[in-house]
C-alpha cells in the first residue's frame, strides 16, 4: 500500500503527566515566568527554545474540567489567591474525588500510597475532620510554632468571613500531638485545598501523616458529593510537592469556570454545616489494610 501505513496501529498522543519530558519542561518554564505572564514573556521564551512550542501545544490539549460556582461563593472568596471567579486556568492540579475507599486505593499506581498509609497506621497516626475553626487553628498553631513560618501562610488561615465555607482536618500521633493540618474551601461540586502543612521535626510520623490526612479528607469530601479537589498550578509546585500529588492521584487539567447566579446550596455546604456531627470516618482512627 502506498505510504507503507496499511495495518499499522494509529499513533497515540503522549500523555502530559508527571515525569514526562513535556511536564518537566513546562514546570521549568512556569517557574521562570511571573504569574499571569504577558504574551511577550512567552514569546521570548519560545524564541530562545523553540522546543517549547511542543510544550505549549501539550498544555492546550489537556482535558478540560468544567466547573460551576455560585455567585455568592465567588464573591465571598474574591480576594483569595484561589478565587474561583478567575476564568480559564491552564495545567491545574485536579483530583477526581472518590466516593469509596476501595476504589481510590485500588491498583498498582496506588501501591506507594497504600504503603505510606500502612506506615502511618502502624505508628498510631490518626486523621480527623475538626468541627470548628478554633480547634483547628489551635492544632495548626502548634505546627506553625515549630516551623516558624506563620507569616507565609496567607490570609486564608484567618477565621472565615461570612459566606465562606471551610472544612478543617488534623492528623495527630498516638499521644495526640498535631502532626499535620489541612484547610479546604468548599464551592459546591468542587473544593480547593488552600493549606496543608506538617511538622518538620517529628519524622517519619509527620511524613506519613500527610498521606493519611490527605486520604482522609479526599474520602470525606468524595463521600459528601464533592467531585473535584483543586490545589493550584500543577507546574509551579516544587518537585517534591509534584511527586506527592502524583502519588495521590492528581492530574494536570485545564479549568473552565462558569459563575452562575446563586441557587440552592450543593453538597459542600451540607459538609460545612455538619458542625460537631462527626462522620464515621472521623469518629475512629483512619484505617487501611
Write a brief caption for the model.
With about 290 residues, the chain is of the alpha+beta class. The protein has helices at about 20-30, 40-50, 50-60, 70-75, 100-105, 110-120, 135-145, 205-225, 240-250, 265-270, 280-285, and strands spanning about 65-70, 90-95, 125-130, 165-170, 180-185, 190-200, 230-235, 250-260.
Topology:
Layout: H1 21-32, H2 39-48, H3 52-60, E1 64-70, H4 71-76, E2 89-96, H5 101-104, H6 111-122, E3 126-130, H7 133-147, E4 166-172, E5 178-186, E6 190-198, H8 205-223, E7 228-233, H9 239-248, E8 251-260, H10 267-272, H11 280-283
Parallel strand pairs: 1-8, 6-7
Antiparallel strand pairs: 2-7, 2-8, 3-4, 4-5, 5-6
Describe the structure.
- The chain is an alpha+beta fold and 289 residues long.
- The protein folds into two domains: 15-61, no CATH class; 94-283, Aminopeptidase (3-Layer(aba) Sandwich), CATH 3.40.630.30.
- The chain contains eleven helices and eight strands.
- It has helices spanning 21-32, 39-48, 52-60, 71-76, 101-104, 111-122, 133-147, 205-223, 239-248, 267-272, 280-283; strands at 64-70, 89-96, 126-130, 166-172, 178-186, 190-198, 228-233, 251-260.
- The chain has an eight-stranded mixed β-sheet with strand order 1-8-2-7-6-5-4-3.
- A hairpin with a 3-residue loop joins strand 5 (178-186) and strand 6.
- Helix 6 packs across helix 8.
- The protein is globular, with a radius of gyration of 20 Å.
Features:
eight-stranded mixed β-sheet, 2 domains, 11 helices, alpha+beta, 289 residues, Aminopeptidase, 37% helix
Amino acid at each position: 500500500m502506498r505510504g507503507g501505513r496499511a495495518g499499522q496501529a494509529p499513533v497515540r498522543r503522549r500523555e502530559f503527566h508527571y515525569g514526562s519530558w513535556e511536564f518537566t519542561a513546562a514546570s521549568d518554564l512556569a517557574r521562570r515566568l511571573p504569574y499571569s505572564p504577558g504574551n511577550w514573556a512567552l514569546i521570548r521564551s519560545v524564541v530562545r527554545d523553540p522546543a517549547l512550542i511542543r510544550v505549549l501545544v501539550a498544555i492546550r490539549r489537556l482535558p478540560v474540567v468544567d466547573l460551576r460556582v455560585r455567585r455568592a461563593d465567588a464573591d465571598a472568596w474574591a480576594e483569595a489567591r484561589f478565587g474561583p471567579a478567575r476564568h480559564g486556568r491552564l495545567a491545574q492540579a485536579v483530583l477526581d474525588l472518590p466516593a469509596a475507599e476501595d476504589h481510590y486505593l485500588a491498583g498498582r499506581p496506588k501501591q506507594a500510597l497504600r504503603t505510606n498509609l500502612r506506615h502511618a497506621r502502624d505508628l498510631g497516626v490518626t486523621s480527623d475532620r475538626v468541627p470548628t475553626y478554633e480547634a483547628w487553628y489551635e492544632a495548626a498553631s502548634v505546627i506553625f510554632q515549630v516551623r516558624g513560618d506563620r507569616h507565609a501562610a496567607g490570609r486564608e488561615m484567618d477565621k472565615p468571613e461570612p459566606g465562606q465555607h471551610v472544612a478543617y482536618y488534623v492528623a495527630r500521633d498516638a499521644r495526640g500531638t498535631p502532626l499535620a493540618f489541612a484547610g479546604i474551601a468548599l464551592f459546591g461540586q468542587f473544593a480547593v485545598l488552600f493549606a496543608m502543612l506538617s511538622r518538620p521535626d517529628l519524622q517519619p510520623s509527620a511524613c506519613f501523616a500527610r498521606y493519611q490526612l490527605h486520604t482522609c479528607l479526599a474520602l470525606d469530601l468524595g463521600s459528601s458529593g464533592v467531585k473535584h479537589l483543586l490545589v493550584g498550578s500543577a507546574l509551579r509546585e516544587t518537585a517534591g510537592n509534584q511527586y506527592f500529588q502524583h502519588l495521590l492521584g492528581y492530574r494536570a487539567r485545564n479549568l473552565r469556570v462558569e459563575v452562575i447566579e446563586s441557587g440552592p446550596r450543593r453538597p459542600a455546604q451540607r459538609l460545612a454545616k455538619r458542625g460537631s456531627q462527626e462522620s464515621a470516618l472521623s469518629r475512629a482512627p483512619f484505617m487501611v489494610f
